[in-house]
Write a structure and sequence with these properties.
The chain is an alpha/beta fold. The chain is built from 15 helices and 18 strands. It has 2 domains: about 20-160, 2-Layer Sandwich (Chitobiase, domain 2), CATH 3.30.379; about 170-475, Glycosidases (TIM Barrel, Alpha-Beta Barrel), CATH 3.20.20.80. It has helices spanning about 55-65, 120-135, 145, 180-195, 220, 240-250, 265-270, 300-315, 335-350, 385, 395-400, 420-425, 455-465, 465-475, 485-500, and strands spanning about 30-35, 40, 45-50, 75-80, 90-95, 105-110, 115-120, 155, 160, 170-175, 200-205, 210, 255-260, 320-325, 355-360, 370-375, 390-395, 440-450. The strands form 3 sheets. An 8-stranded parallel beta barrel has the order 10-11-13-14-15-16-17-18, surrounded by 6 helices. Strands 1-9-6-7-5-3-4 form a 7-stranded mixed beta sheet.
């Protein structure tokens, strides 16, 4: 099933010209190159971080690991220092200064003498490091080449002042239709980090598989997690493994958003416990890709005991403030049953201290004022929900669904929402995607990746990139500064970097790859 791109070209330091601050994705608010030779990293270069700040020290160590031993016999030293401008020859990570545009804003200044990354919060420091990373030679991304000593590593001179357009810049990974292990999820988190995405929505349960251990309902994972689309072995995360994903993402300033789809898309649960069915008969496990046929028995109290237990256990493992209840494609309940269920499910989620998210179908119910509605259908009637205080995440299927084929020759993926070439994923504006929607209600964008046809991490990479980079820029960069012609040029410059990372990305014919 694995998708194939052309064989990766050889990665060498000479493969591409020196990068520029104008090559960064997502496009910064302002980025001005400067004249001069730029900053050269050598054996004596140190990374200076604030005193007694373990978070900043971790970011410094992260940067040191990115550079590796390419410029010196050992990793660059990370040393504590005062929050003052860096002396010559140092890379300085600083908290404070004049950066006031939010927790994710940063300033990056590169001269021949020093590199300064300044932010008011740690998230901004981390994103400044990602921008600095992108102007270093692509070969630093290659594990073997990064370990070689004595290479010239030069960052071009320039200054960036940057902050995101939206606070929600997400990706969704469906681990239910096909199961992906912890290492695969971490790989996806790393790719998200490169492009400053900050939410990973994990679709943990669907008709084809239940993917997280629930100690009070153990058969959900043991039986409901035992298969997947096509009849493979499936799998699930123990609570310890899920906690490790949460930790790894959190280090990289990505918040995990768990989703347990309900009341539909629940066949794995209905197969695991007969009492969740109105007729007390457990359903057979399902390995196809049809939707809309399953639903919890919403008239039974045991259903709400089940939901309470599941939400309680997952909420305790998830420090982020959100819990996604799905709510999409329910075809076997009456509208009255559906709306009553959504209202009751909201109360359970809120009882466990989480804010509710659901797909746009939930807008028919009476929503709590802080509910987030994830819009995938542009014709959804959002007026009453928004008037009541709900906010919106834009995931328009014809623009943001990464499982749609690029074109008719794409070997995997679906086409029900159309074919989405890279410019289709890039050239849209969340503010005009849903007619009549108040732009103030939009908190950001998210790119879902459903896995009916995806069985390996190579498949994930092929369908996600480069479209994930396009969605990241939609969420981060000022609308009036975005243009496809400019993006395709910057994206082409990222080709050698993705190759060095070993990413199986789609080499779109619409991008002038080197």
């Amino acid at each position: 099933m694995a998708a194939c791109a052309k064989g990766p070209p050889t990665v060498t330091p000479e493969a591409v010209p020196l990068a520029s601050v104008r090559h960064i994705i997502p496009l910064p608010s302002t980025a001005e190159p400067a004249s001069g030779p730029g900053f050269t990293i050598g054996a004596e270069t140190m990374i200076v971080v604030p005193h007694d700040d373990t978070r900043a020290e971790w970011i410094g160590q992260y940067l040191s690991a990115l550079i590796g031993r390419a410029a010196s016999p050992e990793h660059l030293r990370v040393v504590p220092g005062a929050d003052v401008p860096a002396p010559a020859g140092l890379i300085s990570l600083e908290l404070g200064g004049q950066v006031t545009a939010g927790e994710e804003a940063y300033e990056l200044t590169v001269t021949a003498d020093s590199v300064r990354i300044v932010a008011s919060h740690h998230a901004g420091l981390f994103y400044g490091v990602q921008s600095f990373r992108q102007i270093l030679p692509p070969f630093i991304e290659h594990q073997a080449l990064r370990a070689e000593q004595g290479r010239m590593i030069t960052a071009p001179a320039g200054r960036i002042v940057d902050a995101p357009r939206y606070r929600w810049r997400g990706a969704m990974l469906d681990v239910s239709r096909h199961f992906f292990g912890v290492d695969d999820v971490k790989r996806y988190i790393d790719l998200m980090s490169l492009y400053k995405l900050n939410r990973l929505h994990l679709h943990l349960a669907d008709d084809q598989g239940w993917r997280i251990e629930i100690k009070s309902w153990p058969n959900l994972a043991l039986h409901g997690g035992s298969t997947q689309v096509g009849g493979g072995p499936g799998g699930y995360y123990t609570q310890e493994q899920y906690a490790e994903i949460v930790r790894y993402a959190g280090e990289r300033f990505i918040t995990i958003v768990p989703e347990i789809d309900m009341p539909g898309h629940t066949n794995a649960a209905l197969a695991s416990y007969a009492e969740l069915n109105c007729d007390d008969e457990a359903r057979p496990l399902y390995t196809g890709i049809q939707v809309g046929f399953s639903a919890l028995c919403v008239e039974r109290e045991v259903t709400y005991k089940f939901i309470d237990d599941v939400v309680r256990e997952i909420a305790a493992l998830t420090p982020g403030p959100w819990f996604h209840i799905g709510g999409d494609e329910v075809k076997t309940l009456t509208p009255e049953q559906y709306d009553a269920f959504i209202e009751r499910a909201q109360a359970i989620v809120r009882k466990h201290g989480k804010q509710v998210i659901g797909w746009d179908e939930i807008a028919s119910a009476r929503l709590q004022p802080d509910t987030l509605v994830q819009v995938w259908r542009p014709k959804t009637a959002m007026g009453p929900a928004v008037a009541g205080g709900a906010k919106v995440i834009m995931s328009i299927a014809s623009r943001a669904y990464l499982d749609m084929k690029y074109d008719d020759q794409t070997p995997i993926g679906l086409t029900w929402a159309g074919r989405i070439e890279v410019p289709d994923a890039y050239d849209w504006d969340p503010e005009t995607a849903v007619p009549g929607l108040d732009p103030a209600a939009i908190v950001g964008v998210e790119a879902p990746l459903w896995s009916e046809t995806l069985g390996t991490i190579r498949d994930i990479e092929f369908m996600a990139l480069p479209r994930l980079a396009a969605i990241a820029e939609v969420g981060w960069s000022p609308r009036d500064r975005r243009a496809w012609a400019d993006f395709r040029s910057r994206l082409a410059a990222h080709g050698p970097r993705l190759t060095a990372l070993g990413v199986n990305f789609y080499r779109s014919p619409m991008v002038p790859w080197p």
